[in-house]
Specification:
The chain is built from no helices and 15 strands. The chain is mainly β. The protein folds into 2 domains: 92 residues, Sandwich (Immunoglobulin-like), CATH 2.60.40; 62 residues, no CATH class.
Length: 191
């Protein structure tokens, strides 16, 4: 069986000479976080031993690292510390499919980062502290019984709970800028 078709014993099948293409890239559009993951999906299995290049705006250094998943068709790599309210083009080149065919460079995917947060106190009562830990935040100085809420910079509520202790750990889904609210106190924090 080759490419889902039954092949008779001794029969030959034409070699794969078609270059791979990028089918989707996320993030895309507007509202992208200033730190997160770029996820590139190819239309066929890729050669994971060939290091392609992913660069934003052709002016920033190439992103490094990355992992393959979904049968070697999805490549994910992290980016961080981008500028708010800025358009970025994702330039992808140098990747090869499992048959060794090189892709044509692709710069047709773009995204724009979220605007900067304004009107939020950067420092609150010295009692409330938000400490970055490996999996998210450790928040201390919470008043028992107060509502603790965490929002992303787009205003999406990610966590809400009633405080039962003066300290709480909250896991976060991705790195970025968050707004932590406990009672009437607000802190802007980066994870």
């Amino acid at each position: 069986m080759v490419n889902g078709e039954t092949v008779a014993p001794g029969a030959t099948y034409p070699p794969d000479i078609t270059a791979p293409t990028v089918t989707t890239v996320t993030p895309s559009g507007t509202g992208a976080a200033i730190s997160g993951d770029i996820v590139i999906t190819f239309d066929e299995a890729m050669d994971t031993g060939v290091a392609g290049t992913v660069q934003l705006n052709n002016s920033l250094p190439a992103l490094t690292g990355g992992t393959w998943s979904a049968g070697n068709t999805v490549f994910t790599l992290a980016y961080s510390e981008l500028t708010n309210s800025t358009a970025y083009t994702v330039n992808i080149s140098g990747f090869k499919d499992a048959a060794g065919n090189a892709m044509t460079a692709d710069n047709t995917h773009s995204f724009t980062t979220v605007p900067a947060v304004t009107g939020v106190e950067s420092e609150a009562s010295p009692i409330l502290q938000v400490i970055t830990v490996e999996e998210g935040f450790r928040i201390t100085g919470i008043v028992t019984g107060e509502t603790l809420s965490i929002y992303n910079v787009q205003g999406l509520l990610l966590h809400r709970s009633k405080a039962t202790a003066t300290e709480q750990r909250v896991p976060l889904p991705v790195r970025g800028l968050y707004i932590v609210v406990s009672g009437k106190r607000t802190v802007k924090a980066v994870y």
